[in-house]
């Protein structure tokens, strides 16, 4: 009776295997120079901003983890400013729209030393119809005397203004209390209810063809977002209907805004890629099949694998691949990639001609099924008994480690915990992973095996 055994081991499993928590997001919005970055740094308890001070660089949607009164959450510093006044108003409105779609709480920051500006009014107008809670913060209120200035912000028609000084820490505790009290129990991003679009990150180094693929997919099928009448904003994500289902491609705004890539800020691009991978359930990792695999490709692959997401590898520009290149590519895959990923589906596509693009969806679906798959404890343990009987783990210090019990602690990705009387070396863990995959199939998903030694 494996249920009884499982109950015995339940305490030893510990809470580290609770389904990966998706933290709620607090978006900080407001005009340039009101002190958003200063406030973000105050909240996350750091001094310097991870922001490149280069004009024209969009530093939108960079997230940091915050903690207050034992509650963890993500803080999102938004940006993306255009220089002229008209552009500025547009980007403020966009920023607010994005926050309304993705954040769980929005903090609108104003500048107490300046008072209400037309920019503040633009955002407030958008935010007044927000279903997401909005907290109004009036920054640069450096002294008690200045508090009166904050009262003017009642005029925005939002809730009570919180007077604070992000630079000096004045009033930020009260703001944090309010933020934490307003956070929902469940983050929007954690929403995986039946019928919710699955989240896809399309990643790869510049020029591999990500935008081309997105355009192809959106062009041939229907882009849901583009069809919503009156949508003038540039949403960060795109809802795309493929194979009869709606998928959410995350952070496609970054793909569309090619201008910023031209700056070649690799550090920034890498942060953005990381963010997209973390926000996604499945990663389409794109490589240029016509060019040698590079370090940068391998870094993105590791990022996806380490994050524990389902992965489909798309070798793009297949129209440029001839016999010779194909031969070289096979060698490169063997040499460079087999250590990192053996389990991902590979599709050879051409975003330009549309070749084999339709193979992506079945690969994504299989991979996600694997990512979600759970093996019942009874089935797992009888399988394990057979495997161990045929090939026992190697001796350690003259003794044979006994694996007494195994359980799948989590899905997404499937994570197994083995309770053993002694250390199980990495080689045997890899062997077990191979066997697990042979028997149960986990195509397209990482599988993790943890060992708990228990005498
Ligand atoms: P952002 O563009 O909204 O992210 O604004 P920053 O955080 O970069 O801040 C803009 C300017 O306002 C910087 O010079 C900050 O030092 C200053 N600043 C930020 N918070 C405060 C504050 O509480 N009081 C005062 N006096 N200045 C502040
Ligand atoms: P991104 O930077 O990853 O978004 O790449 P783009 O989609 O902008 O593509 C970079 C260049 O590769 C463009 O000139 C595209 O026309 C070209 N390209 C994209 N996909 C293909 C393909 O399948 N075949 C060929 N021959 N060129 C492609």
UniProtKB/TrEMBL annotation:
Start and end residues of each EngA-type G domain: 24-187, 198-372
Protein name, per record: GTPase Der
Function: GTPase that plays an essential role in the late steps of ribosome biogenesis.
InterPro entries to which the protein is assigned, alphabetical: AAA+_ATPase, G_ENGA, GTP-bd, GTPase_Der, KH_dom-like, KH_dom-like_a/b, P-loop_NTPase, Small_GTP-bd
GO annotation terms (biological process): ribosome biogenesis
Residues the entry annotates as binding GTP 1: 30-37, 77-81, 139-142
Coiled coil: none
Subunit structure: Associates with the 50S ribosomal subunit.
Gene: der
Binding positions for GTP 2 per the UniProt entry: 204-211, 251-255, 316-319
Keywords of this entry: GTP-binding, Nucleotide-binding, Repeat, Ribosome biogenesis
Similarity field: Belongs to the TRAFAC class TrmE-Era-EngA-EngB-Septin-like GTPase superfamily. EngA (Der) GTPase family.
């Amino acid at each position: 009776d494996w249920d009884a055994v499982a109950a015995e081991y339940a305490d030893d499993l510990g809470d580290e295997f609770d389904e990966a928590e998706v933290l709620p997001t607090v978006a900080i919005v407001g005009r340039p120079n009101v002190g958003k970055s200063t406030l973000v740094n105050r909240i996350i308890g750091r001094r310097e901003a991870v922001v490149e001070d280069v004009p024209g660089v969009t530093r939108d949607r960079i997230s940091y983890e915050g903690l207050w009164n034992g509650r963890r959450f993500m803080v999102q510093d938004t940006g993306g400013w255009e220089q002229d006044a008209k552009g500025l108003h547009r980007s403020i409105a966009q920023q607010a729209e994005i926050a309304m779609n993705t954040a769980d709480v929005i903090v609108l920051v104003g500048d107490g030393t300046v008072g209400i500006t037309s920019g503040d009014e633009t955002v407030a107008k958008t935010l007044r119809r927000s279903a997401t809670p909005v907290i109004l913060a009036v920054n640069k209120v450096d002294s008690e005397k200045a508090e009166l200035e904050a009262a003017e912000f009642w005029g925005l028609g939002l809730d009570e203004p919180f007077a604070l000084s992000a630079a000096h820490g004045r009033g930020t505790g009260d703001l944090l209390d309010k933020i934490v009290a307003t956070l929902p129990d469940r983050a929007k991003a954690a929403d995986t209810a039946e019928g919710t679009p699955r989240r896809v990150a399309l990643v790869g180094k510049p020029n591999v063809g990500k935008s081309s693929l997105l355009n192809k997919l959106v062009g041939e099928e229907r882009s849901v977002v583009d069809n919503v009448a009156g949508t003038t904003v540039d949403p960060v994500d795109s809802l795309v209907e493929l194979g009869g289902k709606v998928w959410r491609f995350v952070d496609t705004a970054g793909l569309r805004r090619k201008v910023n890539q031209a700056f070649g800020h690799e550090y920034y691009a890498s942060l953005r890629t990381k963010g997209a991978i973390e926000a996604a359930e499945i990663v389409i990792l794109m490589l240029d099949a016509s060019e040698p695999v590079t370090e940068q490709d391998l870094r993105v692959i590791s990022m996806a694998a380490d994050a524990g997401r389902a992965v489909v590898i798309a070798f793009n520009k297949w129209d440029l691949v001839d016999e010779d290149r194909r031969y070289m590519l096979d060698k490169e895959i063997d040499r460079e990639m087999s250590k990192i990923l053996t389990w991902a589906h590979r599709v050879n596509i051409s975003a330009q001609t549309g070749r084999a693009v339709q193979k992506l969806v079945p690969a994504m679906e299989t991979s996600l099924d694997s990512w979600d798959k759970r093996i019942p404890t009874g089935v797992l343990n009888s399988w394990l008994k057979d495997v161990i009987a045929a090939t026992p783990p190697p001796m350690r210090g003259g003794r044979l480690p006994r694996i007494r019990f195994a359980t799948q602690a989590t899905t997404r990705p499937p994570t197994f915990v083995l309770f053993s009387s002694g250390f199980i070396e990495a080689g045997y863990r890899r062997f077990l992973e191979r066997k697990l995959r042979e028997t149960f199939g986990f195509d397209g998903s990482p599988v993790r095996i943890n060992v708990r030694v228990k005498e």
